[in-house]
Write a structure and sequence with these properties.
binds flavin-adenine dinucleotide, binds iron/sulfur cluster, five-stranded parallel beta sheet, 18 strands, Fumarate Reductase Iron-sulfur Protein, Chain B, domain 2, FAD/NAD(P)-binding domain, globular, 3 domains, alpha/beta, 35% helix
Length: 507
């Protein structure tokens, strides 16, 4: 364990982000460097409680061996800590930065004291590993002769590719976008995850033998018609190539769909056709593209009054991006009530605490404009249009969640109607699932939430040998869950192929 009395001696002390005033001036990562001794002290707080809920189902979805690496960090054994970390997590440099850390919500110390700073320690271990040159490509000793195609290069596709390659199968990852990484590349913005880190990991996978093909759409030509892809093409990018599933299955022994849940939820209220209303993903994708190309983004919040409708990570990332572009003002609408400050009695430990949190972008907005941008229990009723068809405001009404009304879980509060002037609106109300056209064209069954039906642990869709994992199977989720599903689908494909080869050996 860490230090026997460490949890009594040392208070929790998370590694701070860079100061708001500094980080708002750039798109560099928000994280400040961590002092190794500080992290050793924080690792010493781990009680090695015997039943580590942090690495159980309620805690870390990839079952990271948290008490083991906490202790190794405390002992100054960083190399060994890295090996234990990589044993369960293919990409700790991503989760160490962007994971909401359900492990900390389930930490046993957290029942009576603030939890161990698990996520900080994870990030420090992997960052040190890269600095020291300890992270190397892992190629298989021997090839199986099987070929597997993976569609989609987000964390689920990348984790599946890594594991399948290690198992000896020849893996090709097909991605319809121009860069590899899925939402790690276009979605999560630069300041939360530097794109060089994504490229560095992809390079390692390439060196280990994984093939990557970009701008290639698997299964459906229509899938290219999501807003952000259309816009990329309008900006003069090459048309994306197309490979039918029949062609893929002719060339490969199995196909893993890791195509994400990219169908954005719309807000079909009056005035929706006004210009200046964009899906969050369109905005965030263009912003990252423009940073790559060192040119201003074609959707730019500079000098504009911005409204973000919807919360979560995506809403916060729109706020953080608009602030960095120099917006004139920013407000955020949340339909739900403000969460409580403390766990409610029906949300006990070790469940994920459903409490109000301030993400990096909320404190940044407060720093710049003096107040939290979030406004709760607000229903958007219509967009107001100017003479040129441009959005000039949003009309809202407050809702009362304690009083359901006909057909709605809330009622509108009379007299609470309000107009909010704006020049730009970003819609960040989540995703409804994978694009329907892909499922239709493949003739795949979907579940009740319109995700691809492919039950764990075999992850097989209704059409063998097509497997599915990540957001397209479980619905919009987290990077750490995508990594877990990528690892598990790889195991399922490996079992499937080995069984098939045993059958053909007998025949
Ligand atoms: C703005 C934003 C911020 C987020 N922030 C966080 C965060 O801070 N922490 C966190 O844990 N999670 C966060 N998430 C959620 C997280 O990014 C996702 O849960 C995760 O990326 C899902 O991984 P995936 O591999 O299943 O799919 P994705 O990452 O969505 O990747 C799917 C890939 O498949 C490609 N594709 C789709 N169709 C085809 C096709 N037919 N052929 C070829 N390629 C195709 C897509 O272009 C895409 O690159 C965020 C999500 C968003 C949108
Ligand atoms: S991946 Fe997430 S849940 Fe798991 S240890 Fe890291 S921060 Fe915690």
């Amino acid at each position: 364990m860490g230090k026997v009395t460490g949890f009594k001696e040392f208070p929790r002390s998370a590694v701070p982000y860079r100061a708001e005033a500094e980080r708002l001036g750039d798109f560099d990562e928000i994280f400040s460097g961590a002092d190794p001794e500080h992290l050793q002290t924080q690792g010493a707080r781990c009680m090695d409680c015997g039943v580590p809920f942090c690495q159980s189902e309620e805690g870390c979805p990839v079952d990271n061996l948290i008490p083991e690496w906490n202790d190794l960090v405390y002992q100054d054994e960083w190399r060994a800590a890295l090996d234990r970390l990589h044993a369960t997590n293919n990409f700790p440099e991503f989760t160490g930065r962007v994971c909401p850390a359900p492990c900390e919500g389930a930490c046993v110390l957290g029942i009576t004291e603030p939890a161990v700073t698990i996520k900080n320690i994870e990030q420090a271990i992997i960052d040190r590993g890269f600095e020291e040159g300890w992270v190397e490509p892992v190629a298989p000793r021997q090839r199986s002769g099987f070929k597997v195609a993976v569609a989609g290069s987000g964390p689920a596709g990348l984790a599946a590719a890594d594991q399948l390659n290690r198992a000896g199968h020849a893996v090709t990852v097909y991605e319809r976008a121009d860069r590899i990484g899925g939402l790690l590349m276009y979605g999560i913005p630069m300041m939360k995850l530097d794109k060089h880190l994504v490229e560095r990991r992809v390079d390692l996978l390439r060196q280990a033998g994984v093939d990557f093909v970009t701008r290639t759409n698997i299964g459906t030509k229509a899938a290219v018609s999501t807003d952000h892809m259309i816009n990329l093409m309008e900006e003069g990018r090459d048309e994306t190539a197309y490979l039918s599933v029949e062609e893929v299955l002719d060339r490969y022994d199995a196909l893993v769909l890791a195509v994400g849940a990219t169908e954005a939820r719309d807000l079909p209220i009056p005035g929706r056709t006004a210009s200046g209303i964009h899906f969050a993903m369109e905005y965030l994708t263009r912003s990252t593209q423009s940073l790559y190309e060192k040119s201003p983004s074609s959707i730019n919040a500079a000098g504009k009054r911005v409204i973000v409708i919807g919360g979560g990570d995506t809403g916060a990332d729109c706020i953080g991006t608009a602030l960095r572009q120099g917006c004139q003002s920013i407000v955020n609408f949340e339909l739900l009530d403000r969460p409580p400050n403390e766990r409610a009695s029906n949300n006990p430990w070790p469940q994920w605490p459903l409490i109000v949190r301030s993400d990096y972008a909320h404190t940044e907005a407060k720093h710049r404009f003096g107040k939290d941008p979030r406004n709760y229990s607000l229903l958007s009723k219509s967009f107001l249009m100017g003479d040129q068809g441009e959005v000039r405001g949003v009309q809202t009404v407050e809702v009362d969640w304690s009083r359901p009304s006909d057909g709605a879980p809330f009622s509108e509060i009379e007299g609470s109607e309000r107009e909010w002037p704006c020049d730009l609106v970003f819609l960040s109300m989540g995703f409804t699932g994978p694009e329907g056209t892909l499922l239709d064209q493949l003739g795949l069954e979907s579940d009740s939430r319109s995700n691809i039906l492919a039950q764990a642990p075999d992850y097989l869709s209704s059409r063998a040998p097509v497997f599915a994992a990540g957001d397209c199977r479980r619905g919009q989720s987290l990077v750490v869950w995508a990594i877990r599903e990528g690892r598990e689908v790889a195991e399922a494909v490996d079992n499937y192929l080995r069984k098939r080869s045993e059958i053909s050996a007998v025949a």
